Amino acid sequence: MSPAPRKMHADEADLDEALVSRLVAAQFPAWAGLPVEYVDSAGTSNAMYRLGADMVVRLPRVAGAAEDVGAEHRWLPRLAAVLPVAIPAPLGKGEPGEGYPHPWSVFRWLEGATPDPAEPFAEPGLFGKDLAEFLVALRQVDPAGAPVSYRGDPLAGRDADTRAVISGLRGTVDERAVTAVWDAALGVPAWDRPGVWVHGDLQPGNVLVDGGRLGAVIDFGCMGTADPAVDLISAWYLMDAEARAAFRAALGPAADDAMWERGRGWALTIALNEIAYYQETNPVMARIARRVIGELTGPSL
Q1: What's the number of domains the chain is made of?
Q2: Phi-psi category of 12—alpha, beta or left, where left has phi over 0 and alpha has psi -120 to 50?
Q3: What is the pLDDT of residues 131-158, one digit of tens each?
Q4: What pLDDT sits at residue 267?
Q5: Based on the domain organization, do 144 and 284 belong to the same domain?
Q6: Which one of 125, 129, 172, 236 has the largest count of C-beta atoms within 10 Å of its C-beta?
């Protein structure tokens, strides 16, 4: 039996393979007896267990993540019909049981590997183009009735919190450099139009690469309407300077100077908070966040 996932939150549910097997057997008897195996990842909101050869069970770790389950089952099939790459396909919606307190999901397993941003893509221009096409298509989805993204607030609304985190990380990050990036992001015009569809969390653990190309986008827990600049965090979370340049060129008018600057601000505030919260409990995520800050403050912006 694989080890239980490492806990990262004070109120996190107890999870292991035996629990998943019991939940599946009780609520989806047609899948009872299929092998269950923990999928190791740096994810912070959900734990995943491979179910048989072509399914995955996804269980919220905390109550906040459980609130996303209903929206995922409602919206992911609609988004899948119009997006150019694969996204999770819901196969079943589970209910609390066996001592586990949250709703949960069964999805189709998607092949591919999460990228390592420290390893350049063999064809960075192709990956940048793929992701740009995904974002352009996502932004064009009709937002009528869509939820507001978890990151649907204006960037300026995070000013006090971000500056407090910068102060708390004094000695861990270059306070002067990160403050300059933050000030620049707040100094450009804010988004003043209705929100458009965004993924909201385009980090390495949430995309799958196949042969150096974008194969799938997963974990839509932050999806909804927002300033599309939030999805530009992918330029620093997923790409080196060469891929980032190709990505921006492929976006064209969909990423003007102000939006690009706000994207930098979103990448910064997210990375700073990840370092502050996950230094001890999720060293992989903290390492990625430190690399992002290096990309944002280094010579190749």
Answers
A1: 2
A2: beta
A3: 999 999 999 999 999 999 999 999 999 9
A4: 98
A5: yes
A6: 236
